[in-house]
Design brief:
Blueprint: H1 3-31, H2 36-58, H3 61-64, H4 70-86, H5 91-94, H6 99-130, H7 137-165, H8 168-186, E1 197-199, E2 205-207, H9 209-237
Antiparallel strand pairs: 1-2
Helix pairs in contact: 1-2, 1-6, 1-7, 1-8, 2-6, 2-7, 4-6, 4-8, 4-9, 6-7, 8-9
């Protein structure tokens, strides 16, 4: 019942709103072209997969913070997923695919993306939990897991409605993945010696805010540029 404990609780809720919303974007992007009935199934199975991944990762959360190169690998996957979501669907390639196949293809995309997003989410929550001290880290991490579930469920349904009405949300969602990829890279322990650092809470050091923002902007623009380039190339080839 210390102030540090409740501060960590507030931080975890904020992390869930931000990163849980990112999971919702991924689920909505992957399911946007499914029929309405299958969209619900895609969201349901995608959310179920996200929850299972969190249950598995929760036991490794505090250790993951110290694993070099993990965030770099995750960032590369996020960039690839963001670019892929910007590409138009090939009508000829999918003309003979059953609706159920499309559903499971969307669910597979959700699971891959959720794995990366869950890593980022759990790592962030574990970092906030560590600040509380007092041996309450795992309790706080589990609390973060519980809070994230309704955010993913409700958030994905809201985002998918927005994408139907405003297609630009698809582009913004893909760029959001690029932003997170950029910030994940500079936060990897393996790059600590080469990344500008500044004083954080207590004696802890963290990535410079300006450098972190710059990395996010570069990641977002990279996804947009590569996606547009591939779209133009596909248009020329067809």
């Amino acid at each position: 019942m210390t102030p540090e404990f409740w501060l960590a609780v507030a931080q975890i809720i904020m992390i869930d709103i931000l990163l849980g919303g990112d999971n919702a974007v991924v689920i909505a992007l992957a399911c946007r072209k499914l029929p309405p009935a299958q969209r619900r199934l895609g969201i349901m199975w995608g959310t179920f997969g996200a929850i299972i991944l969190r249950v598995i990762l929760i036991f490794f959360a505090l250790t993951l913070l110290q694993v070099p190169y993990l965030k770099i690998v995750g960032a590369v996957l996020l960039l690839w997923i963001g670019v892929k979501l910007l590409l138009p669907e090939d009508g000829d390639e999918h003309s003979n695919i059953q609706s159920s196949d499309k559903l499971w293809a969307a669910v597979k995309t959700v699971i891959v993306a959720d794995f990366v997003m869950s890593l980022d989410n759990v790592i962030a929550i574990a970092g906030a939990a560590e600040s509380a001290g007092g041996g309450h880290e795992m309790i706080l991490v589990i609390f973060g897991l519980v809070v994230s579930i309704p955010i993913i469920v409700w958030g994905s349904q809201l985002v998918i409605k927005l994408m139907d009405r405003f297609p630009i949300v698809i582009t913004l969602g893909a760029m959001l993945l690029g932003w997170i990829a950029g910030t994940m890279v500079v936060g990897d322990p393996a790059l600590e010696k080469w990344v500008p650092m500044e004083a954080g809470k207590g004696d802890a050091m963290q990535v410079s805010s300006m450098f972190n923002y710059a990395a996010g902007v570069i990641g977002a623009l990279l996804v947009l540029a590569v996606g547009k380039l591939l779209v133009r190339r596909q248009a020329v080839e067809t």
